[in-house]
Amino acid sequence: MPLTEPYDDNLPEGEVDAARAAGGYGRAPGAEPATGPGSGSGDPVADVSEPEPAGPEPEQAGPEPVLPEPVRQRIVALTATVLPGLPADEVPVPLRRVAKFAPNRRARLGAPMIAAQLTADPLFRQRVANRALADAGDLGAAVVDGTAPAAADPVEVAALAYLARPQGWRGLVEASGAAVQAEADSAVVAELVREAEQRATRAEHDRAVARVEAEKLRDELARVREELGQVREEARQLGRALRETQARERRAGELLATERGRATRAAADAEAELRRVRARLAEAEATAGVARASAKEARSVDDARLWLLLETIGQAAVGLRRELALDPVEKLPADFVADAFTGTAAAADAAAATRARDTDDPARLDQLLALPRAHLVVDGYNVTKRGFGEMSLEQQRKRLISGLGGIAAQTGDEVTVVFDGAERIHGLPPAPRGVRVLFSRKGETADELIRRLVRAEPPGRPVVVVSSDREVADGVSRHGAYPLGADSLLRRLARS
Using the 8-state DSSP alphabet, how is residue 359 labeled? Predict the structure, then answer.
């Protein structure tokens, strides 16, 4: 392509305007330069004598050769490198502003103006050539002689030849173009070969992957066929099961219809029976009303008889008390046991065995304490260790005696609490009213003292013994006492 080209569109607007003003924008090869004789610009460059060319060659007529793109770019780069080193009066007017650009912008933005001036101004081209040949050294001298070393870069040789224009420079430019084209072709061929090798490698890899995938697909197909066979077998089994279920459903529907008929008939029978039962119930209620009235009348007669009997017994008791002339007693049987602690107890009457047996019902304790002149005997430590064993013995005794005092005050019954002790503990607080506190003597246990207290009571008097000791409960029950567990008393105390 020709060296001269239009300015780059990326050139700053001010620089393009300057180039246009200088007349160097898009100048055709061979046109008159903007500077020199007859230009009318008054530039002093026209009067300056120029140095002799390094390798002069008569200007050959003819068009500018078409330069390969690398050669054109190298010529512009050499000119842009030399441009700042030239005196200001040797630099064409359009390029004086370009010479002030930064090195990286000079060849890029000033390339159109540089190419135009090199094509249109042989003197400027010769000045650039002199500087470039001097910088090239031996290679520049060889180019001026019209020869080029075999190892030299053809692009560099063509650029220097274009600038210096020695004898046969067109051949050097054409040879450089051929070399550049050969290198480009070689690069294209190498790229094509590389791409072909890559495609062959990829194709081989794709074939290997395809073989592996084919094996996988074959295995998957075999597995799917096997699963399909299993699914078909399951479908056949499910079909048979469905048909059997449908048959059972039909039979169940028939049975349901039959049972519904039976249920309807049974409901009708039940309704008729219900009507009959209601009629009988009405008759029974009428009969019951008559019976209740008769029972009420009979109960009134029985109540009158019972009142008369109790009145007779009461008057007989008063008469017997008057007949025996018994004075009121100051001591109770338990007081004699507490005073004596020894002695033989009277034999218990054989009828005592008919008394109520042991029970842990807390309501039973209230029922027994409600009997007239009841005597409550408590196994002290057996109750306290079960209910509040985390306290000290002294605190246990105080808490139990205080609670028994409340029971004695509420019921008015006689209450005796027995503790194990080798000898009487001194410093005890006074017992509450109605509560007797006893300690067993040395060699005797509280269980024995409790049995002695029970034996001392007359037959017929209600005696309640509270102890969770099985041996104590069995022993007192043989003498006619009512044994109760410790939990019944603890609940009674908690309620109080």
Answer: B
Report which of 491, 495, 496 is spatially closest to residue 387, judged by C-alpha positions. Answer: 491
CA distance 106 to 91: 14
Check: CB of residue 401 under 8 Å from CB of residue 419.
no
Distance CA 335, CA 426 (A): 20
Residues 6+ away with beta carbon under 8 Å from 237? none
Contact indicator for 164, 178 with CB cutoff of 8 Å: no
DSSP assignments along 309-333, one per residue: HHHHHHHHHHHHHHHHTPPPPS--H
Q: How far apart are CA 464 and CA 118, in angstroms?
A: 143
CA neighbor of 82 nearest in space, from 137, 131, 130: 131
d(CA 494, CA 496): 5
Q: How far apart are CA 440 and CA 166, in angstroms?
A: 152
3-state secondary structure of 383: helix
Question: In this structure, what DSSP letter does residue 485 have?
Answer: -
SS3 of residue 375 by DSSP:
strand
What does the chain come to in residues?
496
- Write the pLDDT tens digit of every residue in 371-412: 888 999 999 999 999 999 899 988 999 999 999 999 999 999
CA distance 262 to 273: 16
- Give the three-state DSSP class for 343: coil
pTM value is: 0.35
**What is the rounded CA–CA span in Å between residue 130 and residue 134?**
6
Q: How far is CA 406 from the centre of its chain?
A: 61
